[in-house]
Fold each of these.
Amino acid sequence: MTDQERAAQRQVQSDVAALAGAIERMAGDLALGEEPSNFEAALEAGAPRD
């Protein structure tokens, strides 16, 4: 493997790691964004009415 090929492989690995990090952050944001609506729905479905 040439130095140029090794450098290209390192760049690809770096790009993949950055993409994986972005996906993890977006998934975390989505989970946080959904929680209030799920919480509200659970309250409405299970809360006794006075």
Amino acid sequence: MNVHTEERPWQRWCCRAIKWIAKERFELRTWRADGPPGDAVDLSELVRFLRGR
């Protein structure tokens, strides 16, 4: 029997001035019975915003 467990915490910070996501963090943690645990982190951040005309 192969046991696999995942945890996916997700955080978002919104910018009120532009009413959109300013920063986002997504983590993926895995645990397996037959191997080492794994971690991955994706981070995105708004660094510049230009208003449309």
Amino acid sequence: MGELNLPGPHKYRSNEQLAAFQHWGEASILDLDHDGLEEMIIEFPGLHLAAPDLTIVRLHKGTLEASSYIASSLGKGQGISANLIRDQLLPIISLSNEQENRSTLNYHYDNGILKIIK
């Protein structure tokens, strides 16, 4: 995909164009949905009262798109964290609520959409 400068905010160079993302964390490149196109995942490990969270960046129709923070978008309230589980055939995005009995919802990423795993 290109070059990354770590740990954040991130700058990405592709075809001599520079894009910047105001998301903090560790960036990695991974094909989340095995469609042959790599996504950039920015994993924020959490800090003070901010829980761990994820951002997904993809190239879509020639334009870089960055998601909002996953836990902040899907979670309802504080104590929600998002983590990437890589040890599966298709990586899983796990959304956990540390305040409500550690309930967990798991999602697969599919072409820009998070689909809940039932």
